[in-house]
Specification:
The protein is of the alpha+beta class. The chain has one domain. It has helices spanning 24-33, 41-49, 66-80; strands spanning 13-16, 19-22, 56-58, 61-65. It has a four-stranded antiparallel β-sheet with strand order 1-2-4-3.
Length: 81
Amino acid sequence: MTAGGSGERDSRSVVSDDRRLFDIVAAVEYFRSIGADAATKNFIRGLIATGQVASEKIGKKFYISREELDRWILKKQRRAQ
């Protein structure tokens, strides 16, 4: 059972320490769902590589929490004002 209540399992996310983590593709989909149509995998990789968002490496994949993504967005919105 996922946090949303549905029985489906999303293969692009993983639960670690009671946090839902997105892989790079799921992070791009999240950004696009909130209106950032220009978000790409390379953009997300750049955020990870430059340390702008904290990530966890599990196996060969990098995962980012939704809270980290939201924190980055809020920081950018405050700067733009």
